[in-house]
Amino acid sequence: MLLALLIPLWVAWREEEVWQKMLAFASVATKTSMMILVVSVLRDDWMIGVVGVIILSVGNAALMLLAHLVKRINDVVTAQTLRL
Fold this sequence. Notes:
By secondary structure, this protein is mainly alpha-helical. The protein has one domain (2-83). It is built from three helices and no strands. It has helices at 2-14, 18-43, 46-83. Helix 2 packs antiparallel against helix 3 (46-83). It is elongated and about 60 Å long. The N and C termini lie far apart (49 Å). The model has no long low-confidence stretch (mean pLDDT 81).
């Protein structure tokens, strides 16, 4: 799982586009929260599991919304630049 966690970081390091970097970081957040959930099941600790679920549901949604907003802003700026 740790090797699978490093793959998106390598992709983010190579990419120039912000959208791709944010998707890679969202993938890292998903994998991390899944590891938290596995640890919570192994330790039989539901409080850690709740934290993993919150990270999984809220964290990725906020990151993907931010990535979409950045992409739309870049599209608008590019369109305005082309008009000039």
